[in-house]
Design goal:
Blueprint: H1 57-60, E1 74-78, H2 79-85, E2 91-92, H3 94-99, E3 109-113, E4 123-126, E5 128-129, H4 131-139, E6 143-146, H5 153-176
Parallel strand pairs: 1-3, 2-4, 3-5, 4-6
Length: 177
Amino acid sequence: MNIDDVHKGVTKHRSRNRLGRGPGSGNGKTAGRGHKGQKSNPGYSAHPTFQGGTMPLVRRIPKRGFNNPFALRVMVVNVGDLDAAFEAGDDVTPDQLRVKDLAKGRYDRLKILGNGQLTKRLVVSAHEFSKTAVEQIEKAGGKVQVLPGKVPAAHKIKAAREANRQHMAASKKTKKK
């Protein structure tokens, strides 16, 4: 093969296939739709899950539970992993965990769990800690720093309602005077 043969027949802007323009085109007469049937008619479009009248697979499979779109995603890291990845005296932050590939992907909260043994003195910053993780970190001579996390939408809505109630109550008192 020659290098100039690589792109032979490849066009950058290919013109659309004009259907129903005679037998020489290969897509004349029935325009690639075949003879008769619902699919050959103009304006035909089927639902993506339609299976010819059979109960569709998506309706046959039982549904279990639900997916809460407002739930906070929690990333979990064990103290045993921290012991293996960090040196004594290091600061353990979410950014450092990402660099060391211990906390990959997206998450809303970082939680440190007490699985494994911690022998090094570390300053660990996270949103949540289990009781055993706190015990192990402090036993090794380290510190625990709780980071402020993302506030759930329900809490924000509740706080806004409460502020609105207080505002309305205050405005009623001023009107009465």
